[in-house]
Write a structure and sequence with these properties.
Structural class: alpha+beta
Oligomer: single chain
Shape: globular
Number of strands: 12
Strand order of the largest sheet: 7-8-9-10-11-1-2-3-4-5-6-12
Length: 194
């Protein structure tokens, strides 16, 4: 459940595209990339986590996200409520997003060092839970890869995007998930202590 919580939080953060960074050269280039991303009305891409979990990600500005995993699970947000559904267990989680700040801005903010090499940004912090983030963009400045390393751990979460298509005119219905009536609904599962 903890791993699922981490993925859910990340995908919500991914759906909120504006970003802050902290190093002059890296910050300027990152700001430029993120300004471009902020003008994207919508996008769809193939997504892969750690080389094994795959699916289709859809995003609509502002803050609307839908991910359909190849195993049937769904993660969907209209910007106010985040739903995740697992057909194998018949459980739907409904997370209220009131008061949540984030997006990539929340994920990338507070890093003491932001460096740039080619199309690869490296964010470092001694104080953050994710003390190292690698963010790679393609030739069109679209996100290609994000690697996040936890402090005091060698574990890396890798999220790869490919086949990105932008400004598709996605309808809002995709982002207003309605769980099956037979599913068990768990309210605010990300707020629960394990």
């Amino acid at each position: 459940m903890l791993r699922l919580k981490k993925y859910i939080l990340f995908f919500f953060l991914l759906g909120c595209l504006p970003v802050l960074a902290d190093s002059q050269d890296g910050k300027e280039r990152l700001s430029s990339v993120l300004a471009k991303l902020n003008t994207v009305e919508s996008l769809r891409a193939s997504i892969t986590i750690n080389g094994t979990l795959t699916g289709t990600l859809s995003y609509k500005n502002p803050y609307q996200l839908h991910v359909r995993w190849n195993d049937g699970r769904i993660l969907s947000s209209n910007g106010k409520v985040l739903w995740f559904y697992n057909p194998d267990s018949g459980i739907s989680g409904r997370q209220d997003l009131k008061g949540v700040s984030g997006g990539l801005a929340g994920l990338f903010s507070g890093y003491e060092t932001v460096t740039l090499s080619g199309r690869t940004f490296r964010l470092l912090s001694n104080d953050k839970k994710m003390n190292e983030i690698i963010f790679i963009v393609n030739e069109n400045d679209m996100p290609r890869l994000i690697k996040m390393k936890k402090k005091d751990s060698e574990d890396v979460t890798e999220i790869a995007l490919s086949g990105i298509a932008t400004n598709l005119g996605l309808g809002t219905g995709l982002f207003n998930f309605q769980p099956p009536t037979s599913s068990q609904i768990v309210e605010n599962p990300l707020n629960q202590k394990e």
